[in-house]
Protein backbone atom coordinates (compact mmCIF):
# COMPACT_ATOMS: atom_id res chain seq x y z
CA UNK A 1 0.00 0.00 0.00
CA UNK A 2 1.37 3.39 -0.96
CA UNK A 3 2.19 5.90 1.73
CA UNK A 4 -0.42 8.66 2.09
CA UNK A 5 -0.09 12.30 1.20
CA UNK A 6 0.21 14.10 4.52
CA UNK A 7 -1.40 17.50 4.93
CA UNK A 8 -0.10 19.69 7.73
CA UNK A 9 -2.81 22.04 8.96
CA UNK A 10 -6.57 21.49 9.29
CA UNK A 11 -7.68 24.95 8.24
CA UNK A 12 -9.72 25.65 5.13
CA UNK A 13 -6.81 24.98 2.74
CA UNK A 14 -5.90 21.72 4.42
CA UNK A 15 -9.45 20.41 4.47
CA UNK A 16 -10.08 21.39 0.87
CA UNK A 17 -6.83 19.71 -0.20
CA UNK A 18 -7.92 16.54 1.61
CA UNK A 19 -11.35 16.55 -0.04
CA UNK A 20 -9.80 16.98 -3.49
CA UNK A 21 -7.35 14.13 -2.89
CA UNK A 22 -10.18 11.92 -1.63
CA UNK A 23 -12.14 12.63 -4.83
CA UNK A 24 -9.14 11.28 -6.77
CA UNK A 25 -8.96 8.17 -4.59
CA UNK A 26 -5.62 9.27 -3.10
CA UNK A 27 -5.08 8.41 0.56
CA UNK A 28 -4.19 11.25 2.89
CA UNK A 29 -3.82 12.18 6.54
CA UNK A 30 -4.19 15.57 8.23
CA UNK A 31 -1.92 16.59 11.11
CA UNK A 32 -3.09 19.56 13.19
CA UNK A 33 -1.35 21.20 16.16
CA UNK A 34 -4.56 22.63 17.60
CA UNK A 35 -7.22 20.61 19.39
CA UNK A 36 -9.79 21.65 16.76
CA UNK A 37 -10.14 21.96 13.01
CA UNK A 38 -10.62 25.26 11.21
CA UNK A 39 -7.36 27.15 11.74
CA UNK A 40 -8.07 30.87 11.56
CA UNK A 41 -11.74 30.13 10.94
CA UNK A 42 -13.23 30.28 14.40
CA UNK A 43 -16.98 30.48 15.01
CA UNK A 44 -18.24 30.67 18.56
CA UNK A 45 -21.23 31.51 20.73
CA UNK A 46 -21.26 34.01 23.54
CA UNK A 47 -20.23 32.61 26.94
CA UNK A 48 -23.37 31.22 28.62
CA UNK A 49 -25.52 32.72 25.83
CA UNK A 50 -25.67 30.16 23.00
CA UNK A 51 -29.20 31.32 22.13
CA UNK A 52 -27.80 34.63 20.85
CA UNK A 53 -26.28 32.94 17.80
CA UNK A 54 -22.98 32.07 16.15
CA UNK A 55 -20.25 34.67 15.62
CA UNK A 56 -17.07 34.62 13.54
CA UNK A 57 -13.82 35.60 15.24
CA UNK A 58 -11.90 34.97 12.04
CA UNK A 59 -12.99 35.54 8.43
CA UNK A 60 -16.63 36.50 8.05
CA UNK A 61 -17.76 36.87 4.45
CA UNK A 62 -17.06 36.38 0.77
CA UNK A 63 -17.88 38.27 -2.42
CA UNK A 64 -19.78 36.08 -4.91
CA UNK A 65 -19.42 38.50 -7.83
CA UNK A 66 -15.65 38.01 -7.94
CA UNK A 67 -14.92 34.88 -5.90
CA UNK A 68 -16.14 31.99 -8.01
CA UNK A 69 -14.31 29.12 -6.31
CA UNK A 70 -15.94 29.59 -2.92
CA UNK A 71 -19.29 30.43 -4.50
CA UNK A 72 -19.29 27.14 -6.40
CA UNK A 73 -18.20 25.18 -3.33
CA UNK A 74 -20.94 26.73 -1.18
CA UNK A 75 -23.51 25.67 -3.79
CA UNK A 76 -22.01 22.19 -4.04
CA UNK A 77 -22.18 21.73 -0.25
CA UNK A 78 -25.70 23.21 -0.07
CA UNK A 79 -24.71 25.74 2.56
CA UNK A 80 -27.07 28.53 3.55
CA UNK A 81 -25.90 32.12 3.25
CA UNK A 82 -27.35 35.60 3.68
CA UNK A 83 -26.42 39.08 2.51
CA UNK A 84 -24.25 41.21 4.81
CA UNK A 85 -26.32 44.12 6.17
CA UNK A 86 -25.12 47.45 4.80
CA UNK A 87 -28.37 49.43 4.56
CA UNK A 88 -28.33 52.79 6.34
CA UNK A 89 -25.86 55.52 7.24
CA UNK A 90 -22.24 55.00 8.23
CA UNK A 91 -20.51 56.79 11.11
CA UNK A 92 -17.14 58.48 10.99
CA UNK A 93 -15.36 59.33 14.26
CA UNK A 94 -12.61 61.93 13.84
CA UNK A 95 -12.16 63.13 17.45
CA UNK A 96 -13.03 61.59 20.80
CA UNK A 97 -14.81 64.68 22.12
CA UNK A 98 -16.72 65.35 18.92
CA UNK A 99 -19.93 63.64 17.86
CA UNK A 100 -19.41 61.16 15.02
CA UNK A 101 -20.28 62.31 11.55
CA UNK A 102 -23.14 60.56 9.81
CA UNK A 103 -22.81 59.84 6.09
CA UNK A 104 -25.15 58.26 3.55
CA UNK A 105 -22.99 56.28 1.16
CA UNK A 106 -23.87 56.28 -2.54
CA UNK A 107 -25.84 53.30 -3.80
CA UNK A 108 -23.65 50.29 -4.68
CA UNK A 109 -20.59 51.89 -3.04
CA UNK A 110 -20.09 48.68 -1.04
CA UNK A 111 -19.79 45.42 -2.94
CA UNK A 112 -22.43 42.87 -1.91
CA UNK A 113 -20.92 40.20 0.34
CA UNK A 114 -22.40 37.00 1.73
CA UNK A 115 -22.14 35.47 5.19
CA UNK A 116 -22.78 31.92 6.31
CA UNK A 117 -25.83 31.00 8.35
CA UNK A 118 -24.22 29.48 11.43
CA UNK A 119 -20.88 31.16 10.70
CA UNK A 120 -17.94 30.16 8.50
CA UNK A 121 -17.51 27.06 10.68
CA UNK A 122 -20.40 25.59 8.68
CA UNK A 123 -18.07 25.48 5.66
CA UNK A 124 -15.36 23.75 7.71
CA UNK A 125 -17.85 21.22 9.11
CA UNK A 126 -19.29 20.47 5.68
CA UNK A 127 -15.84 19.72 4.23
CA UNK A 128 -14.84 17.62 7.25
CA UNK A 129 -18.05 15.59 7.03
CA UNK A 130 -16.92 14.29 3.63
CA UNK A 131 -13.69 12.89 5.09
CA UNK A 132 -13.18 9.75 7.20
CA UNK A 133 -12.67 10.73 10.87
CA UNK A 134 -9.56 8.54 11.13
CA UNK A 135 -7.53 10.75 8.80
CA UNK A 136 -7.43 13.52 11.44
CA UNK A 137 -4.66 13.62 14.04
CA UNK A 138 -5.26 16.65 16.28
CA UNK A 139 -2.85 18.03 18.90
CA UNK A 140 -0.05 16.73 16.70
CA UNK A 141 2.63 19.36 16.14
CA UNK A 142 5.04 18.75 13.28
CA UNK A 143 8.67 19.31 14.25
CA UNK A 144 10.75 17.70 11.48
CA UNK A 145 10.22 16.68 7.85
CA UNK A 146 12.95 14.36 6.57
CA UNK A 147 13.31 13.27 2.97
CA UNK A 148 14.34 9.60 2.86
CA UNK A 149 14.05 9.15 -0.91
CA UNK A 150 11.73 10.26 -3.69
CA UNK A 151 8.94 7.98 -2.42
CA UNK A 152 9.35 8.28 1.34
CA UNK A 153 9.27 11.14 3.83
CA UNK A 154 9.44 10.81 7.60
CA UNK A 155 7.48 13.38 9.60
CA UNK A 156 8.29 13.62 13.30
CA UNK A 157 5.65 15.18 15.52
CA UNK A 158 5.18 16.12 19.15
CA UNK A 159 1.91 15.15 20.82
CA UNK A 160 0.05 17.02 23.56
CA UNK A 161 1.54 14.74 26.25
CA UNK A 162 5.10 15.47 25.05
CA UNK A 163 5.61 12.13 23.34
CA UNK A 164 6.82 11.92 19.76
CA UNK A 165 5.17 10.12 16.88
CA UNK A 166 6.40 9.49 13.35
CA UNK A 167 4.42 9.35 10.11
CA UNK A 168 5.59 8.18 6.69
CA UNK A 169 4.36 10.09 3.65
CA UNK A 170 4.76 9.96 -0.12
CA UNK A 171 4.33 13.77 -0.38
CA UNK A 172 3.50 16.66 1.93
CA UNK A 173 1.18 19.65 1.60
CA UNK A 174 1.99 22.38 4.11
CA UNK A 175 -1.24 24.28 4.75
CA UNK A 176 0.14 26.53 7.46
CA UNK A 177 1.05 30.23 7.67
CA UNK A 178 4.44 30.53 5.91
CA UNK A 179 6.17 32.17 8.89
CA UNK A 180 5.00 29.36 11.19
CA UNK A 181 6.56 26.84 8.80
CA UNK A 182 9.87 28.74 8.72
CA UNK A 183 10.05 29.10 12.50
CA UNK A 184 8.68 25.79 13.77
CA UNK A 185 9.53 23.08 11.22
CA UNK A 186 12.99 21.68 10.43
CA UNK A 187 13.57 20.22 6.95
CA UNK A 188 16.21 17.53 6.41
CA UNK A 189 17.88 18.30 4.05
CA UNK A 190 17.27 22.05 4.39
CA UNK A 191 15.00 23.78 1.93
CA UNK A 192 16.75 26.34 -0.28
CA UNK A 193 17.61 29.77 1.20
CA UNK A 194 15.32 31.35 -1.42
CA UNK A 195 12.33 29.27 -0.33
CA UNK A 196 13.03 29.94 3.34
CA UNK A 197 13.29 33.70 2.72
CA UNK A 198 10.02 33.60 0.80
CA UNK A 199 8.33 31.97 3.78
CA UNK A 200 9.69 34.52 6.25
CA UNK A 201 8.72 37.48 4.06
CA UNK A 202 5.02 36.56 3.89
CA UNK A 203 3.22 38.21 6.83
CA UNK A 204 0.46 36.01 8.19
CA UNK A 205 -2.97 37.36 7.34
CA UNK A 206 -4.80 38.52 10.53
CA UNK A 207 -1.81 37.58 12.71
CA UNK A 208 -1.37 41.12 14.05
CA UNK A 209 -5.08 41.68 14.45
CA UNK A 210 -7.69 41.14 17.12
CA UNK A 211 -11.43 41.04 16.75
CA UNK A 212 -14.11 42.10 19.23
CA UNK A 213 -17.81 41.29 18.81
CA UNK A 214 -20.38 43.09 20.98
CA UNK A 215 -23.64 41.13 21.15
CA UNK A 216 -27.05 42.68 21.86
CA UNK A 217 -30.61 41.40 22.07
CA UNK A 218 -31.38 43.09 18.76
CA UNK A 219 -29.65 45.26 16.11
CA UNK A 220 -30.96 48.50 17.62
CA UNK A 221 -28.85 50.74 15.35
CA UNK A 222 -30.93 49.75 12.34
CA UNK A 223 -33.98 51.48 13.87
CA UNK A 224 -31.85 54.63 13.99
CA UNK A 225 -31.13 54.37 10.27
CA UNK A 226 -27.58 53.13 10.77
CA UNK A 227 -25.88 50.33 8.85
CA UNK A 228 -23.56 49.38 11.72
CA UNK A 229 -20.58 50.37 9.56
CA UNK A 230 -18.27 52.88 11.25
CA UNK A 231 -14.74 54.18 10.78
CA UNK A 232 -12.73 55.73 13.59
CA UNK A 233 -9.52 57.69 14.00
CA UNK A 234 -9.95 57.49 17.78
CA UNK A 235 -10.21 53.76 18.48
CA UNK A 236 -9.61 51.31 19.89
CA UNK A 237 -11.66 49.89 16.99
CA UNK A 238 -10.67 51.28 13.61
CA UNK A 239 -13.36 49.66 11.50
CA UNK A 240 -16.75 48.38 12.67
CA UNK A 241 -19.41 46.34 10.86
CA UNK A 242 -22.80 44.78 11.56
CA UNK A 243 -22.17 41.19 12.68
CA UNK A 244 -25.78 40.26 13.44
CA UNK A 245 -26.98 36.75 12.60
CA UNK A 246 -29.66 36.54 9.94
CA UNK A 247 -32.31 36.13 12.65
CA UNK A 248 -32.56 37.06 16.33
CA UNK A 249 -29.87 38.99 18.13
CA UNK A 250 -27.77 41.94 17.01
CA UNK A 251 -24.00 42.26 16.98
CA UNK A 252 -21.27 44.70 16.02
CA UNK A 253 -17.72 43.56 15.30
CA UNK A 254 -14.59 45.63 14.95
CA UNK A 255 -10.98 45.41 13.85
CA UNK A 256 -8.44 47.18 16.04
CA UNK A 257 -6.29 50.14 15.18
CA UNK A 258 -4.57 49.58 18.53
CA UNK A 259 -1.24 47.72 17.98
CA UNK A 260 -0.78 44.21 19.41
CA UNK A 261 1.81 45.24 22.03
CA UNK A 262 -0.53 47.92 23.39
CA UNK A 263 -3.45 45.46 23.58
CA UNK A 264 -1.36 42.97 25.50
CA UNK A 265 0.03 45.60 27.88
CA UNK A 266 -3.47 46.83 28.68
CA UNK A 267 -4.94 43.36 29.09
CA UNK A 268 -8.23 42.00 27.79
CA UNK A 269 -10.43 43.55 30.49
CA UNK A 270 -9.22 47.12 29.86
CA UNK A 271 -9.30 46.67 26.07
CA UNK A 272 -12.93 45.55 26.19
CA UNK A 273 -13.85 48.44 28.49
CA UNK A 274 -12.47 50.79 25.86
CA UNK A 275 -14.39 48.94 23.14
CA UNK A 276 -17.64 49.31 25.05
CA UNK A 277 -17.01 53.03 25.66
CA UNK A 278 -16.35 53.57 21.96
CA UNK A 279 -19.55 51.79 20.91
CA UNK A 280 -21.54 53.97 23.32
CA UNK A 281 -19.93 57.10 21.82
CA UNK A 282 -20.80 55.96 18.33
CA UNK A 283 -24.17 54.26 18.66
CA UNK A 284 -25.65 55.95 21.71
CA UNK A 285 -27.02 54.83 25.10
CA UNK A 286 -28.57 51.63 23.70
CA UNK A 287 -25.02 50.29 23.27
CA UNK A 288 -24.72 50.15 27.07
CA UNK A 289 -27.01 47.11 27.11
CA UNK A 290 -24.42 44.75 25.68
CA UNK A 291 -25.06 41.10 26.56
CA UNK A 292 -21.48 39.99 26.02
CA UNK A 293 -18.31 40.97 24.18
CA UNK A 294 -16.42 38.13 22.51
CA UNK A 295 -12.72 38.72 21.92
CA UNK A 296 -9.90 36.99 20.07
CA UNK A 297 -6.38 38.41 19.82
CA UNK A 298 -4.76 36.52 16.97
CA UNK A 299 -1.35 38.04 17.71
CA UNK A 300 -1.29 36.01 20.94
CA UNK A 301 -2.15 32.75 19.17
CA UNK A 302 1.08 30.72 18.89
CA UNK A 303 -0.37 28.64 16.05
CA UNK A 304 -1.02 31.80 14.02
CA UNK A 305 1.50 34.51 14.84
CA UNK A 306 5.21 34.93 15.51
CA UNK A 307 6.82 37.96 17.15
CA UNK A 308 7.43 39.68 13.79
CA UNK A 309 3.67 39.70 13.17
CA UNK A 310 3.23 42.23 15.97
CA UNK A 311 4.64 44.94 13.70
CA UNK A 312 1.58 46.68 12.17
CA UNK A 313 1.34 46.30 8.40
CA UNK A 314 1.58 49.58 6.49
CA UNK A 315 0.42 48.13 3.18
CA UNK A 316 -1.36 45.05 1.90
CA UNK A 317 1.30 42.30 1.81
CA UNK A 318 2.55 40.81 -1.42
CA UNK A 319 1.25 37.28 -1.54
CA UNK A 320 1.82 34.60 -4.14
CA UNK A 321 3.13 31.07 -4.73
CA UNK A 322 6.12 29.68 -2.85
CA UNK A 323 8.45 27.98 -5.27
CA UNK A 324 10.41 24.87 -4.36
CA UNK A 325 13.62 23.76 -6.04
CA UNK A 326 16.22 21.05 -5.58
CA UNK A 327 15.55 17.81 -3.75
CA UNK A 328 12.19 18.96 -2.36
CA UNK A 329 10.71 19.85 -5.74
CA UNK A 330 7.55 17.81 -6.47
CA UNK A 331 7.78 16.38 -2.94
CA UNK A 332 6.27 19.24 -0.95
CA UNK A 333 3.72 21.89 -1.85
CA UNK A 334 2.51 24.96 0.01
CA UNK A 335 -1.14 25.95 0.45
CA UNK A 336 -2.88 28.72 2.36
CA UNK A 337 -4.28 32.15 1.67
CA UNK A 338 -0.78 33.70 1.84
CA UNK A 339 0.21 31.70 -1.25
CA UNK A 340 -2.58 33.05 -3.46
CA UNK A 341 -1.62 35.77 -5.93
CA UNK A 342 -5.04 37.25 -6.63
CA UNK A 343 -7.01 36.50 -3.45
CA UNK A 344 -4.38 36.57 -0.69
CA UNK A 345 -6.02 37.13 2.68
CA UNK A 346 -9.41 35.81 1.52
CA UNK A 347 -11.22 32.50 1.89
CA UNK A 348 -11.13 32.35 -1.90
CA UNK A 349 -7.35 32.45 -1.81
CA UNK A 350 -7.23 29.59 0.69
CA UNK A 351 -9.39 27.42 -1.58
CA UNK A 352 -7.56 28.25 -4.80
CA UNK A 353 -4.19 27.55 -3.19
CA UNK A 354 -5.42 24.12 -2.10
CA UNK A 355 -6.41 23.31 -5.68
CA UNK A 356 -2.97 24.33 -6.95
CA UNK A 357 -1.15 22.33 -4.27
CA UNK A 358 -3.15 19.18 -5.00
CA UNK A 359 -2.63 19.61 -8.73
CA UNK A 360 1.12 19.86 -8.18
CA UNK A 361 1.24 16.74 -5.99
CA UNK A 362 -0.92 14.68 -8.36
CA UNK A 363 0.94 15.70 -11.48
TrEMBL record:
Pfam families named among the record's database cross-references: Amino_oxidase, NAD_binding_8
Protein's name according to its UniProt entry: Amine oxidase domain-containing protein
Domain Amine oxidase positions: 106-362
Gene Ontology molecular function: any one: oxidoreductase activity
InterPro entries linked: Amino_oxidase, FAD/NAD-bd_sf, Flavin_MAO
Family according to the record: Belongs to the flavin monoamine oxidase family.
